[in-house]
Amino acid sequence: MAESTDLEQLMNSFKKFAIHGDTKATGKEMNGKNWAKLCKDCKIIDGKNVTGTDVDIVFTKVKAKTSRVITYEEFQRALEELAQKRFKGQSKEEALTSVYKLIEGKEPTNVGVTKMAKTAAVDRLTDTTKYTGSHKERFDESGKGRGKGGREELVEETGYVGSYKNAGTYEEKTKAK
Q1: Any coiled-coil ranges, and where (predicted)?
Q2: For residues 34 and 14, what is the distance between their CA atoms, to the nearest angstrom?
Q3: How far is CA 70 from CA 9, 15, 22, 98, in A?
């Protein structure tokens, strides 16, 4: 029973890494980049026994000749190969269990992702209540930008004729005369 939940967690981790960074991914197949990320994030790559090159070689070895991705079954075969390299002193089954334990429940980390700077200078520059004059009209009451409508005076092009502009201003023009 414990074995099935371990494999279920392994499958969940596989799916999470398979869809990482790819909006079209289904989670059934994993590309080489995500395979390398999984090995790095889950500490399968230790720099001594298993390197990034080893991970790439195993990926190429287990995938189909013309394919660019591996399935879950090929993923398990790749783990079997890496397990023996990573845990040399252990038996085949113990090494595989150790590798599974490294991966179970893990998901891709976003190390190095740029965080939004929140400093006093940025706060002052983005505070719309301090804007005056024509710049003040770029924002509505809530402080949300109006886009092009806040920068330019947009003319309505409505009417019977395609190039007719300034609908509803005829009466004003005739009264002025």
Answers
A1: none
A2: 10
A3: 18, 12, 15, 22
Which of 41, 62, 63, 67 has the alpha carbon at shortest distance from 52? 41
Residue appearing with tokens 């252990």: 90
Its pTM stands at 0.60
Structure tokens belonging to residue 88: 């040399």
Instruction: Collapse the DSSP code of 48 into the 3-class scheme (helix H, G, I; strand E, B; otherwise coil) and give the result.
Output: coil
Q: How far is CA 135 from CA 124, 132, 144, in A?
A: 15, 6, 13
Q: What is the pLDDT of residue 55?
A: 92
Judge whether 81 and 63 are in contact, CB under 8 Å. no
**Mean pLDDT estimate for the chain:** 80
